[in-house]
Specification:
This protein is mostly beta strands. It is built from three helices and 22 strands.
């Protein structure tokens, strides 16, 4: 336990942590260091703004820290590429290797008690909202855009960005992909390797397979 705490202290005692807190937060909040950022986070854009709603305490938001045993976190780098708005509603842990990209006109919001374990990517040019008490596993990809525009022969855009909404207490299994325009109901479990390209409307269900379907209903998951 002592060794773990010393390693954590070494990882967060870096310029990144100071940059995030004093760039994004008012002084009276920044001095409490609510945001801990690993020295292994690559900052591509430190723009836009961060909003923390609710009580503020030291280390409530952790970026690029913590680890999963099957990955070599010493060789894994997180990426922060933000020009838009990021909103936190409470504790949020983005594990090592997580990548965050937020466009200039976009908003990314994390509900309270959110954990993404490792090596996952979240990219938005419009809006992605994640509810309370959600758990994301590793190697997850979530994006609200196709990145490249498709038009018909008259120049009308055929694939505009569409917002993503994740409900409360949603568990997303490893290597799942969540695409633009999707809403996921409260209490959903997304099976590993699933491609979620349509709404999940049944609360407390397990969904998976390709194409996506309900595997089991009336279930609860526990951390």
């Amino acid at each position: 336990m002592i060794v773990h705490r010393l390693k954590l202290l070494w990882d967060i005692c870096c310029l990144n942590t100071l940059l995030f807190n004093f760039k994004y937060l008012p002084l009276r909040k920044a001095v409490r260091l609510p945001i801990w950022v690993s020295r292994r986070v690559r900052i591509r854009n430190l723009g836009g703004k961060i909003i923390i709603n609710g009580d503020i305490y030291t280390g409530m938001i952790r970026i690029g820290l913590d680890s999963v045993g099957i990955f070599d976190n010493k060789k894994s780098r997180s990426i922060w590429q933000v020009n838009g708005q990021v909103i936190f509603y409470g504790r949020c842990f983005l594990g090592h290797g997580c990548k965050v990209s937020v466009g200039e006109q976009a908003t990314l919001s994390f509900g309270s008690d959110f954990t993404c374990t490792a090596e996952s990517s979240i990219a938005t040019v419009k809006s992605i909202s994640i509810g309370d008490e959600c758990l994301f596993s590793w190697d997850i990809l979530m994006m609200d855009t196709d990145w490249h525009t498709i038009t018909d022969l008259d120049g009308k855009v055929q694939n505009p960005p569409k917002p993503i909404r994740i409900g409360n207490r949603v568990w997303v299994g490893c290597r799942a992909t969540i695409t633009k325009g999707v809403s996921i109901a409260d209490g959903t479990i997304i099976a590993a390797g699933s491609i979620v390209s349509k709404d999940v409307t049944e609360s407390n269900s397990i969904v998976g397979k390709n194409p996506l379907q309900v595997i089991r209903r009336s279930v609860l998951w526990h951390k």
